From TrEMBL:
Organism: Zhihengliuella flava
GO molecular function: indole-3-glycerol-phosphate synthase activity; phosphoribosylanthranilate isomerase activity
PROSITE patterns in UniProt: IGPS
Alphabetical keyword list: Amino-acid biosynthesis, Aromatic amino acid biosynthesis, Decarboxylase, Lyase, Tryptophan biosynthesis
Name listed for the protein in its UniProt record: Indole-3-glycerol phosphate synthase
Pfam hit, one: IGPS
The keyword Amino-acid biosynthesis is assigned to this record: yes
Amino acid sequence: MSVLDDIIGGVREDLAARRVAVPDADIQAAARAAAPARNAWAALGGVTGDVQRDTRLHVISEVKRKSPSKGALAEIPAPAELARRYADGGASVISVLTEQRRFGGSLEDFDAVRSAVDVPLLRKDFMVEDYQIFEARAHGADLILLIVAALSDEDLRRMLAVARELGMEALVEAHTEEEIDRAVAIGATIIGVNVRNLKTLDVDRGTFARLASRIPSDVVIVAESGVRSVEDVVDFATQGADAILVGEALVKDAMPRDTVAAFVSAGSAAKPARR
Ligand SMILES: O=C(O)c1ccccc1NCC(=O)[C@H](O)[C@H](O)COP(=O)(O)O
């Protein structure tokens, strides 16, 4: 069994318990009653037509306590305070991991961050049921994660449609050429190239340029995982990233506000006008 399969097994068990506590009809009603979602695609530099690319390299800053690959990363006693620092540094979107068993996250963390900042929020979890999408919206999410390796094309299309019907977008995450092609085929407007293989946990930054070149120019490209330094940010920006998603390096940083600002500044300076 791969790490991803193992994580998803736990996610399904936890989801079943939440579904008993809050039935489908109730979570759907809460999602539809929530304040309108913010436009995460525009916040990440999405533009329509043959216009100049957004010149900014956008940063998605993640609230992440631990991970299967690294174990404990940071305690994060006050996720809201960390999120405020991210926003002050210029994060375009904040990602909050809500998976509990392997990442130490929760919907309580998500609620705390939602009440602290006004930037678009990504609910970062392993989405396998539509219920989780309604749950994300009910808690104020603007963006959800869909992992191509974990879902069939039918599931991807339906879940993307559910997210859009609720006013959200999806970060559709891929790690191979075939997964990129599947993400493009379902009409993803934000595609994440995760340089971490979720089945082996190996990180290979070289994956990014090879995969990004297959993505149409009107799609927002996010480079995910493995950013440790300004040099990594400059590499991803030069190779076509519109945004980077950073967890470990920021939660371990004593001055996350300054580091986010430095990543935005260096990445924006390195970003080519067209790709
Ligand atoms: O981070 C992991 O070890 C991991 C393992 C299995 C599935 C997902 C995993 N991480 C999710 C992510 O995509 C990262 O949290 C995100 O890209 C940030 O990565 P990093 O900056 O390297 O913390």
